[in-house]
Design a protein that fits this description.
Strand content of chain A: 5-15%
Largest interface: A-B, 40 and 33 residues
Largest sheet of chain B: none
Number of strands of chain A: 5
Number of helices of chain B: 19
Strand order of the largest sheet of chain A: 2-1-3-4-5
Oligomer: heterodimer
Structural class of chain B: mainly alpha
Distance between the termini of chain B: 17 Å
Distance between the termini of chain A: 68 Å
Number of strands of chain B: 0
Radius of gyration of chain A: 23 Å
Structural class of chain A: alpha/beta
Low-confidence stretches of chain A: 1-5
Radius of gyration of chain B: 23 Å
């Protein structure tokens, strides 16, 4: 090593300046590289992103959320129902399999960042904002998605959820480190080059949106899923009708029993609402008829935290929506069930749209 | 904790910052020793006991050798050091190998013995620090070094964390004098160290770890791979091994340099060597020079002692062959490593006898010959055992394998790319580019380079190949 690189005291005093130059150049390059890195392949997410980016100015309303949104809301049927109520609305289903609160939150911000010209409403599931724990295996698509969605803003919200959660301090610490690592991987684009390069190489310039995306506007019936199979009898939760009915009844009771919101991440919810409204769009929270207890949603509504809320997870109140023949499992409808629910939803949704129309 | 992990960057930033803030040389050395034990303990704290034993034994033996009244006592101290160090190495690394080989041999003679295997975990880096502390005792015995009275200095020499787990093997004569002088921050060649670290990081995280999954796939089931795939597999492992180990050595030198210490060069562009002998003088230099200085001379002496002809060329050949066999065995406790070493020894002897001159004197033949030699050696090195080597090699020459090769031919593009980069490094284009920049431009270019490199780094933990030794 030559003496040329060694430091005299004058050069040493400039070290903070050089560090700042290094950090600025690193950050600027990382941001530039990040713009080139697409979201990772995750089920149909790539197709939805591409289709929405190309048609973003065509929609007034977007449903965003998990597979419970993807499989249960039929935009075409909802739009017909809204038209019958005198509302000319064109909606799009942006539900994605496997999405949870924080991915949905990230997706909402992504949609708003596209500045869709006509967008007036976003319908989404009331987020539990519970800390995500299932990011195992660093190369899993879910983890890649987690890396991508770990922006500074989302990571701060996730860390709040972690520290609010009822966990041992050691677990809280481990979880925090894990999420900070994911943030670091995201900010530094660590390890994401080959997948991004592959995605760019595989990008088909003549891509044509599949029918479920173009005609179905993002909705895909569960029966149309590639490789769809009816559930095996021993794994079908709807097979024993009596047990299903009991479960549904118990769930309504659980939902109405109330919930403590002591550990709820209100900051995340309020920021989400603020971000949506800040873009001139109105949030509408809607729970499709799932057979899962989610008492926090009703409790949040009672507190007045949810600006517009449509709770359909109440089997006694909406018995018709819980008929087992309409469903494939406890969360998702079959095609016919999704259509019936969307028809049922439309007039109730119309009331909110009329009330909140800009 | 390895050099490419985020936790190491945090660890090093804390260690280096506090180190340079401390004033006294003794305090700094104590801090470095504590940091080195934390670093080593992060692998498995139980192995700290071994390194402490090795340190204590050679510290006491060094003083004992120096203070011994006569040659006999000197020898006794040396033999004690050799016995304990090699005994520990032998137990942890070679016990199962020797027992299994012994049982196999007895079974050949009709003695039916059940296979035996002890459940021993190999402590990381044991071969490196054992050789390092052995050289200390031997150098004192030879009168080439004075025993170190400061236990702190000696303990830091054995455990200095940048080179502790995978070398380079540092000699006491090179390292201990550096501990006498308080290091000055102004003397640190930051730019050279940072450049070296970046190159080492690229070699390890962006090349070695990226090709590793494909190499693992090919070597885990060679039957599923055709002829081309096997050649690609062996060649890729060749690239992986070089980038992994030389990348580690670069980062070790850089981190030591940032603390003000200088480590020996461990690689000198071995793929541009025109002969196998020269290749080994450029590959893992600290090991081959250790073996030359401590084992070759002994084997040569043994030849004469056993009545061999002093003027016979076989004296050199035998020592050379023995030395390279030992190099193979140093790498791993299995027969494939023994043959790996013997294969190297055979070629080195043939070259020494002038039998390969028709190749080594022609550049256009010599370089491909060395690359081919190392590619074939890679099969010995990477195969899990000798029984895997033969089917793999026969498959390389057209026997067996599926009709269509599942290994994409594009992987072959790694080789010319590797050689081009190797050449650029050899001609120091990139080093010179970084060296000529003004300070502010270096900081800017380094920031851009780091941000461009990280996307290509492999995600997840991938230990250095040489940690197993």
């Amino acid at each position: 090593m030559s003496a040329e690189g060694s430091l005299d005291p004058r050069r040493l005093r400039r070290a903070p300046l050089y560090l700042a130059i290094f950090a600025a150049c690193f950050a600027a390059t990382a941001v530039a590289v990040r713009a080139w890195i697409p979201m990772p392949p995750h089920y149909d997410l790539q197709d939805k992103l591409r289709y929405f980016a190309e048609h973003k100015d065509e929609f007034d309303l977007v449903f965003v959320g998990s597979s419970a949104t993807f499989r249960n809301f039929v935009p075409e049927v909802v739009d017909e129902g809204l038209a019958a109520e005198g509302l000319e609305v064109r909606s799009f289903n942006f539900g994605v399999v496997g999405f949870r609160s924080f991915e949905t939150d990230y997706m909402v911000r992504w949609i708003l960042a596209q500045e869709p010209a006509r967008l007036k409403w976003i319908v989404l599931e009331p987020p539990p904002f519970d800390p995500p724990f299932d990011y195992t295996g660093l190369q899993a698509s879910k983890t890649e998605l987690a890396v991508h969605s770990h922006t500074l803003e989302e990571t701060e919200l996730i860390l709040r959820s972690v520290w609010l959660a009822d966990l041992e301090p050691r677990v809280k610490y481990d979880e925090s480190i894990r999420h900070l690592k994911l943030l670091g991987m995201n900010l530094g684009n660590i390890g994401r080059g080959p997948a991004a390069l592959q995605a760019h190489l595989d990008r088909d310039p003549d891509w044509v949106a599949p029918p479920w995306l173009a005609d179905g506007r993002g909705f895909q019936a569960v029966e149309d899923r590639p490789g769809f199979k009816e559930p095996a009898p021993d794994k079908d939760p709807l097979r024993d009708r009596a047990a299903y009915r009991d479960r549904a009844v118990a769930m309504e009771a659980a939902n109405r029993a109330g919930a403590s919101l002591e550990r709820y991440n209100f900051t995340a919810l309020r920021r989400q609402i603020g971000a949506i409204r800040g873009a001139g769009v109105e949030p509408i929270y809607c729970l499709s008829p799932m057979v899962f207890a989610m008492p926090e949603a009703l409790a949040l509504d009672e507190l007045g935290e949810l600006p517009n809320f449509l709770p359909f997870h109440l089997p006694k109140t909406y018995a018709n929506l819980f008929r087992p023949e309409l469903r494939i499992d406890l969360t998702h409808y079959r095609r016919e069930g999704a259509s019936q629910f969307s028809r049922f939803l439309a007039p109730r949704l119309a009331e909110i749209l009329k009330r909140t129309a800009p | 904790m390895i050099f490419t992990q985020a936790v190491f960057f945090v660890f090093f930033a804390v260690v280096a910052s506090i180190y340079w803030l401390l004033r006294g040389n003794g305090t700094r050395k104590a801090w470095l020793l504590a940091a080195s034990y934390v670093f080593y303990g992060s692998w498995d704290w139980r192995f700290l006991g071994l390194i402490l034993i090795s340190t204590l034994v050679d510290y006491v033996a060094g003083i004992g050798i120096e203070g011994a009244a006569d040659g006999w006592r000197k020898r006794l101290w040396l033999y004690a050091s050799l016995a304990i160090n090699l005994g520990l190495l032998g137990y942890f690394k070679y016990f199962n190998f020797f027992v299994e080989s012994g049982v196999g041999l007895l079974n050949l003679f009709g003695l039916e013995l059940a296979p035996m295997r002890a459940d021993i975990i190999l402590p990381v880096g044991i071969s490196f620090y054992t050789f390092q502390s052995l050289s200390y005792s031997i150098d004192i015995y030879r009168g080439e070094l004075q025993a170190r009275r400061s236990p702190l200095d000696f303990a830091l020499f054995v455990a200095f964390f940048p080179q502790l787990v995978a070398g380079p093997i540092v000699r006491a004569v090179e390292f201990l004098p550096q501990l006498d002088v308080r290091r000055r921050l102004a003397d640190v060649e930051f730019r050279a160290c940072l450049t070296l670290f970046l190159f080492g990081f690229i070699k390890k995280a962006c090349v070695a770890d990226r090709v590793a999954p494909m190499v693992d796939r090919i070597f885990s089931d060679p039957e599923a791979v055709g002829t081309t795939g096997r050649w690609i597999g062996a060649g890729l492992f060749n690239v992986q091994l070089y980038c992994d180990f030389s990348g580690y050595s670069d980062m070790a030198m850089a981190t030591a340099g940032l603390l003000g210490y200088r480590l020996v060069e461990n690689f000198r562009f071995p793929f541009f060597a025109p002969s196998v002998g020269e290749f080994w003088r450029r590959w893992h230099i600290s090991l081959t020079s250790w073996i030359r200085d401590y084992l070759y001379i002994y084997l040569d002496w043994l030849w004469v002692r056993l009545g061999g002809n002093k003027r016979s060329r076989w004296r050199i050949y035998t020592a050379l062959f023995g030395v390279y066999t030992a190099v193979g065995l140093w790498h791993g406790a299995s027969w494939n490593f023994v043959f790996f070493g013997m294969n190297a020894g055979l070629f080195v002897v043939l070259e020494a006898a002038g039998k390969m001159k028709w190749i080594t004197s022609r550049g256009w033949l010599a370089y491909p010959y060395v690359f081919l030699f190392w590619t074939m050696s890679a099969v010995f090195f990477r195969s899990g055992g000798l029984d895997h080597v033969v089917p793999y090699v026969t498959g390389m020459f057209g026997a067996g394998g599926p009709a269509t090769d599942p290994v994409a031919l594009r992987w072959a593009a790694v080789f010319p790319l590797f050689l081009v980069v190797h050449f650029a490094m050899y001609r120091r284009f990139l080093h010179d580019f970084f060296r000529r920049l003004p300070d502010w431009a270096f900081a800017a270019v380094y920031g851009v380079a780091a941000a461009l490199v990280l996307p290509w780094a492999s995600v997840g933990y991938q230990a250095f190949v040489y940690f197993q030794f």
